[in-house]
């Protein structure tokens, strides 16, 4: 989403290299023999099992262990499914609007923080650039490094543009929306739209027909207009509460419509900056854990730190972990990682661990249509998991049976 100051030309406008780029080789978890992670609090779809166990055989979770399985003591830890991020612009000093090297760096950065399944989000830019970037990101999806592409902009409201460049915004013309999803070669997963703009409802219908999630966001819509968008097929609220009218008692706006409809999944950025704890509690109480998806909306500085960055043509200052436009002060994405979102939800917001797992793994997997592969620690699914200590700090990350972060358990 943003690149280090002065580096945009080298990152987001640079080489369109198509060679496969790989992160440092993860450490094999098993070799040829299965392992059994034993003694942890294991969070399953049916609830938490104290002193539970998870069997990993190759790249998948198994129902039973073979005689040659190696038992690993995970007592004192929590074992949860790998995190899934639906909305992420980059990290590690790199952007999903950048080169192939940038993309791989951002992916690996978030894997180190427990995100084993990741949708890459673009930011508003000119259409030709977005078309080219869609082609590059689709290659990472085809090789299994990404779960798809999310286009955030340019079809959003100038009244609620946030950290998007106003001169590059445009109405959601269905022909242009179709151009982007065609460029993604079947790998487009979500498009954020201000559905009240001309062409908005037709674009929602087009996306629904092509199996792409239509998300209501960066919108100035009324309550009634948002209801129309949901009826047309919109099923996600892009970072609920942010970049949309506030909830009013006479003009409830999009927030009320999105919270009340059972068909809508609401994204929440749980970094302590984007949402007051009371707003987070309101969303969980009204929508229920089954309709919440925690996202990062991360930009380049995630996993790096404070400094000056560029968000397209806009300069961003990251100070004490909060990213804001230098001109105007609007929040410009986040520096959040999903392990921090998990810990905050449990230790600060006091949400049940099971609800947090639902918001970080189960619901995003369902929304993406991949819950047969990921999203829970169920036999037959990919061996994607996160090991947390008793304070909910990340200690280990496994993806498809290989340790990305090795907990060094005996």
Automatic annotation (TrEMBL):
The active site is at 297 (proton donor/acceptor). Substrate binds at residues 163, 242-243, 250, 274, 331-333. Pfam families: Amidohydro_1. Keywords: Carbohydrate metabolism, Hydrolase, Metal-binding. CDD domains: NagA. Zn(2+) binds at residues 152, 218, 239. Gene3D superfamilies: Metal-dependent hydrolases, Urease, subunit C, domain 1. Binds 1 divalent metal cation per subunit. The keyword Hydrolase applies. InterPro entries: Amidohydro-rel (IPR006680), GlcNAc_6-P_deAcase (IPR003764), Metal-dep_hydrolase_composite (IPR011059), Metal_Hydrolase (IPR032466). Residues 79-404 form the Amidohydrolase-related domain. Its cofactor is a divalent metal cation. It catalyses: N-acetyl-D-glucosamine 6-phosphate + H2O = D-glucosamine 6-phosphate + acetate. Pathway: Amino-sugar metabolism; N-acetylneuraminate degradation; D-fructose 6-phosphate from N-acetylneuraminate: step 4/5. Its EC number is 3.5.1.25. One of its GO terms (molecular function) is N-acetylglucosamine-6-phosphate deacetylase activity. Belongs to the metallo-dependent hydrolases superfamily. NagA family. NCBIfam families: nagA (TIGR00221). This is N-acetylglucosamine-6-phosphate deacetylase. It comes from Streptomyces phaeofaciens.
């Amino acid at each position: 989403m943003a690149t280090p100051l002065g580096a945009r030309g080298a990152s987001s406008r640079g080489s369109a290299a198509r060679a496969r780029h790989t992160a440092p080789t993860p450490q094999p978890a098993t070799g040829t023999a299965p392992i059994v992670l034993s003694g942890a609090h294991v969070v399953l779809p049916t609830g938490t099992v104290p002193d539970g166990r998870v069997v990993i055989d190759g790249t998948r979770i198994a129902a039973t262990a073979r005689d040659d399985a190696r038992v690993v003591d995970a007592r004192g830890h929590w074992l949860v499914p790998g995190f899934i991020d639906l909305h992420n612009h980059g990290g590690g000093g790199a952007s999903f609007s950048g080169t192939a090297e940038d993309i791989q760096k951002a992916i690996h950065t978030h894997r180190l923080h427990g995100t084993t399944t990741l949708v890459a989000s673009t930011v508003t830019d000119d259409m030709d650039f977005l078309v080219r970037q869609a082609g590059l990101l689709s290659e990472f999806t085809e090789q299994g490094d990404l779960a798809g592409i999310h286009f955030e902009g340019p079809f959003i409201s100038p009244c609620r543009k946030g950290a998007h460049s106003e001169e590059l915004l445009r109405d959601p013309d269905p022909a242009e929306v179709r151009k982007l999803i065609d460029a993604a070669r079947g790998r487009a997963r979500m498009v954020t739209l201000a559905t009240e703009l001309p062409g908005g409802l037709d674009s929602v219908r087009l996306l629904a027909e092509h199996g792409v999630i239509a998300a209501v966001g960066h919108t100035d819509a009324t309550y009634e207009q948002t209801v129309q968008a949901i009826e047309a097929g919109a099923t996600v609220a892009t970072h609920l509460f942010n970049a949309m009218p506030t909830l009013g008692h006479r003009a409830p706006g999009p927030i009320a419509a999105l919270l009340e409809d059972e068909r809508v999944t609401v994204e929440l950025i749980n970094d302590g900056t984007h949402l007051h704890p009371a707003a987070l509690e309101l969303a969980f109480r009204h929508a229920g854990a089954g309709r919440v998806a925690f996202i990062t909306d991360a930009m380049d500085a995630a996993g790096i730190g404070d400094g000056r960055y560029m968000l397209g043509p806009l300069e961003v200052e990251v100070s004490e972990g909060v990213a804001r436009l230098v001109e105007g002060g609007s929040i410009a994405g986040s520096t959040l990682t999903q392990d921090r979102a998990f810990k905050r939800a449990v230790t600060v917001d006091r949400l049940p661990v099971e609800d947090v797992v639902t918001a970080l793994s189960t619901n995003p997997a369902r929304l993406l249509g991949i819950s047969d592969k990921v999203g829970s620690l169920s036999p037959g699914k990919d061996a994607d998991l996160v090991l947390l200590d008793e304070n909910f700090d990340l200690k280990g990350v496994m993806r498809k049976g290989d340790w990305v972060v090795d907990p060094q358990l005996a």
